[in-house]
Amino acid sequence: MKLISIVIPCFNEAGNISLYYLAMEKMYHKLQSQRDYLNHEYIFVDDGSSDETLDEIEKLQEKDPSKVHYISFSRNFGKEAAFLAGLQASKGDYVAVMDVDLQDPPEMMPMMVSGIMDEGYDIVGCRRIDRSGEPIIRSFFAKLFYKFINLISKTKMVDGVRDYRLMTRQVVNAILQMKEYNRFSKGIFSWVGFKTKYLPYKNIERKSGKSHFNFWKLLNYSLDGIVDFSDVPLSIASFVGIGSCILAILGIIFVIIRKLIFGDPVSGWASLVTIILFIGGIQLFCLGIVGKYIGRIYLEVKHRPNYVIKKKK
Length: 313
Ligand code: UDP
Ligand code: MG
Prior knowledge:
The chain is an alpha/beta fold and about 325 residues long. The chain has helices spanning about 15-35, 55-65, 80-90, 110-115, 135-150, 170-175, 185-190, 215-230, 230-260, 270-300, and strands at about 1-10, 40-45, 70-75, 95, 125-130, 160-170, 195-200, 310. The longest helix is centred in the last third of the chain and has 33 residues, at about 270-300. The protein binds uridine-5'-diphosphate (UDP) and magnesium ion.
């Protein structure tokens, strides 16, 4: 027998839990009629929900105690922490991660299983081929982010790839070996390597509730991703510094020559102020970049746990 563990982060998703479970059970029933050597378990991670999410999960756990397990956090630690907790608790030969809002279609699972078991891939993920139903500005910045990160980071990230994926135990162990505190899973999944296949599918709107990621959260998340997976911004800061030094030297030479030819009339204070402001701006900008990295190091060296568990079954 082979076991598939399914890790499901849930934050205020009371309306989706039982719908999700029913859809998954239906799909597995079919899958197991073709592959009778497959077993599955659910690992719901309640990320400090304030609604009835945990009650819903507990109800399922009582109904189906051999398959349904859960971990409940003491507060909201974020989706990345929930992933990590789920992967650490998983026992399966294969592990899937997916959202509970049914935006990650269960019907894709048989194809993912086949990708790993029949075609020999280590990871099979899903890639949205469109962004329908998403605000235009969000799509625009998402595309820009992927262009930028692929330009400056050695870890390549594919546009539209969701976290929804099935992985072998070997891949999960590699991911768990990455001990960093700041976990940007899009980068981590790609950093570990392995033979990966992406299945395309059309975007689906979530079943109930709203997305937890608004524009500002996503913007911050992508900035964190850049800092976590590239040091190019630091080089940009140095190059901007070198560039402004060269400009300043050219300026000095210009002023000296002008003095020698035309004497020294007192004028140009306005341009002087603009230049001082400009240089000050560049300095603050570069300091900000350096600060962002120092902030990440600070969080890293404190060695705080990624999450605190309140209840587990
Ligand atoms: N989620 C979580 N913790 C959070 C935010 C979200 O565990 O702090 C879960 C959420 O319950 C869902 C998944 O992460 O199962 C994806 O969240 P959402 O659907 O809001 O994101 P989107 O699909 O809009 O990117
Ligand atoms: Mg969603």
